């Protein structure tokens, strides 16, 4: 049987404005429960919302960065539903006329570049938060109620968990570049709902669309998609179908579980919000926001390839994060060896910060310290292997490389006479290896070089050792 998985996404992005969308309460994360709310975000009778202009600007910025058309006239609507953490029993959102529409993001797949269409981007308010205790009691925190969001809705253009992961990584990178959200999934700043079903192409039948919620990481999204894909295929193979439902991902049991039957659009009873006027943006404002957009990831990749002579792979990794790209360019301004800097960031820096669980801009060292380390490698003061040990200590202690080199006496031995003396001692003790080398066993050379490096504590220049041993053996 031939199957096709069909996936569309709904991504909620929390905007990092100072205040909420319809009132002056702070929009920051955390704090004591129910201390950052007022009659407006609590939905008390008689309170009136006033829209935050910065929210509209951030949404326009997102729309332009994601290749959308901007509606110069859009409308706020009421989406009616009851949940305990939604005190008004409706959410102010956009339905019929969103602010942004018809955009796209290009992703790289095994078959080349693929365009994922974006149906719409609209602005809305967030709800409060329910806290469920073990004894069955639920508490409500309304600090998050009224925090501004954009919802990005894609067309069902993705066909695998790999494509979804690539899309989300690209989207997160763009949102960080344009500086409208911190995109911290663990704090709920970036939340993803997945709509998925599977089609049997041979029989031309497909399962009902299921919505997956509560996905708090890209890894969880991938695992949930893979699970649902297998579940839907199994249903089709047994001539069954899934309910049109909303399911949640259980990270502990590694499976999806039914939450409720999925609502239809009619159930929300959308209608224009009578307390808010139309959102009207003129072309001058849109053009001003467009001019203020920074260089975006895809543009940066092309510039890195052209200006720094990087490979496509290296350029993509370095441009994937605004902070990584900045660290790379700041270092290159100090050191004229972009290839060395690029390779070191990709292999050592990113590995070390992953082990430490920190972001690159939170390291104890700055780009100037890192540039100094690169210069010590370039002028052969230290070897590459010594540099790795020094960098590990730099990350942990925050010390400059010069300080660590002096403390540990780690300067590389480059004096030919000194190295030659050690080579002669090694050769005297390893006549069998000399004989093996002369009989064509090339591994013997590697052994002898290793012995010299051992005698020097790894401080001899490997290239000089290699050259001098070959000369001695000939």
Automatic annotation (TrEMBL):
Pfam family of the protein (one): GatB_Yqey
Domain Asn/Gln amidotransferase: 326-473
Region forming the signal peptide: none
InterPro entries per UniProt: Asn/Gln-tRNA_amidoTrfase_suB/E, Asn/Gln-tRNA_Trfase_suB/E_cat, Asn/Gln_amidotransferase, Asn/Gln_tRNA_amidoTrase-B-like, GatB, GatB_C_1, GatB_Yqey_C_2, Gln-tRNA_amidoTrfase_suB_CS
Catalysed reaction, written as an equation: L-glutamyl-tRNA(Gln) + L-glutamine + ATP + H2O = L-glutaminyl-tRNA(Gln) + L-glutamate + ADP + phosphate + H(+); L-aspartyl-tRNA(Asn) + L-glutamine + ATP + H2O = L-asparaginyl-tRNA(Asn) + L-glutamate + ADP + phosphate + 2 H(+)
GO-annotated biological processes: glutaminyl-tRNAGln biosynthesis via transamidation; translation
Keyword Secreted among UniProt keywords: no
This enzyme's EC code(s): 6.3.5.-
TM ranges: none
UniProt GO molecular function: asparaginyl-tRNA synthase (glutamine-hydrolyzing) activity; ATP binding; glutaminyl-tRNA synthase (glutamine-hydrolyzing) activity; transferase activity
Keyword Hydrolase among record annotations: no
UniProt keywords, alphabetically: ATP-binding, Ligase, Nucleotide-binding, Protein biosynthesis, Transferase
Family, similarity comment: Belongs to the GatB/GatE family. GatB subfamily.
Function description: Allows the formation of correctly charged Asn-tRNA(Asn) or Gln-tRNA(Gln) through the transamidation of misacylated Asp-tRNA(Asn) or Glu-tRNA(Gln) in organisms which lack either or both of asparaginyl-tRNA or glutaminyl-tRNA synthetases. The reaction takes place in the presence of glutamine and ATP through an activated phospho-Asp-tRNA(Asn) or phospho-Glu-tRNA(Gln).
Subunit and partners: Heterotrimer of A, B and C subunits.
Protein name in the entry: Aspartyl/glutamyl-tRNA(Asn/Gln) amidotransferase subunit B
Organism: Paramaledivibacter caminithermalis (strain DSM 15212 / CIP 107654 / DViRD3) (Clostridium caminithermale)
